[in-house]
Amino acid sequence: MRTKKHFGQHFLTQPAIIQKILRELSASLEDTLIEIGPGKGAITLPLLEHDHQLTAIDIDPDVIEYLTPYLEAYPKFKLIHQDALEANLETIALGSPNHKIKLIGNLPYNISTPLIFHFLKYASFLQEMVIMVQKEVADRICSESGNKIYGRLSVMVQAVCRVEKCFNVPPGAFTPPPKVQSAVIKLIPYNPQTNPSPYGEIDYAALGKLCLNLFTQRRKTLKNLIKPYFNQAEDVDAFFVNYPQFSAMQRPETLSVKDFIELSSALNSHGIKPE
């Protein structure tokens, strides 16, 4: 089976790296697992051999054909031939005993960010995600405020998940080797029972629009960035008086995740929602 460039395929082949990834996934036999982009089964087969309930999703018909023989050998194995960006994880979760799933995968680097945002739509059904992405993307996701690479992706993921960068993966661990470094990260969505959010309830859609507006003009000051949301300049000045935790001269990258959530909530409380 040949890799296909238009699918962003790089098949993982180094056994030591495969074992490290599997150790990061805290999966029990009671868990329902989803694998994104199983490729030639480097992660798939060890999970099946340990008798896990596993659903693998891949867009490539050759991958589906390659893995189909394992359906008979492993009754707990399911294959879905589908673009992962269109996968309904809720449907899979509702078919599991506790309506929760854990996700693992070597994400195609050309669509890794859209995939992560897609997965976050199902955060209430996800207990854990162990995913491999381009190192640059991993660094952005895990970045803290005040860093040049801190941005919308950092805020939107950290608002919903506890994030952990696990380890880097060199190009030589793949066939064919990518031209970039890779990294494995772990995302644990917040939930009231086992992983309470430090931020309370969030209007995620409003937060997303605010982040998009602010980070696309990240060199502007906060006062100039939120000015279009108000009818009068005096209203903008009054906002900073009422919310002294924000400075008119701040720039977006200096705002923490908590700051962004509070800013979004403050604007919403005044009936102001970014378009």
Which helices and strands, and how do they pair?
Blueprint: E1 11-12, H1 15-24, E2 32-36, H2 44-49, E3 53-58, H3 61-67, H4 70-73, E4 77-81, H5 89-94, E5 101-106, H6 112-120, E6 126-134, H7 135-142, H8 152-158, E7 161-169, E8 174-175, E9 182-189, H9 204-215, H10 222-226, H11 233-242, H12 257-269
Parallel strand pairs: 2-3, 2-5, 3-4, 5-6
Antiparallel strand pairs: 1-8, 6-9, 7-9
Characterise this structure.
With 275 residues, this protein is of the alpha/beta class. The protein has two domains: 5-189, Vaccinia Virus protein VP39 (Rossmann fold); 204-269, Helicase, Ruva Protein, domain 3 (Orthogonal Bundle), CATH 1.10.8. It has twelve helices and nine strands. The protein has helices at residues 15-24, 44-49, 61-67, 70-73, 89-94, 112-120, 135-142, 152-158, 204-215, 222-226, 233-242, 257-269; strands spanning 11-12, 32-36, 53-58, 77-81, 101-106, 126-134, 161-169, 174-175, 182-189. A seven-stranded mixed β-sheet has the order 4-3-2-5-6-9-7, with helices on both faces. Strands 1-8 form a two-stranded antiparallel ribbon. Helix 9 packs across helix 12. The model has no long low-confidence stretch (mean pLDDT 92).
Short description:
Helix content is about 35%, strand content about 20%.
| Count of beta strands | 9
Total individual domains: 2
State mean pLDDT (0 to 100 scale).
92
SS summary, helix count:
12
Question: Ranges with pLDDT <50 over ≥5 residues?
Answer: none
CATH homologous superfamily descriptor of the largest domain: Vaccinia Virus protein VP39
> Structural class per helix/strand content?
alpha/beta
Largest sheet properties: 7 strands, mixed
Overall geometric form: elongated
* CATH fold description of the largest domain: Rossmann fold
What are the secondary-structure elements, in order, as H or E? EHEHEHHEHEHEHHEEEHHHH
CATH architecture of the largest domain: 3-Layer(aba) Sandwich
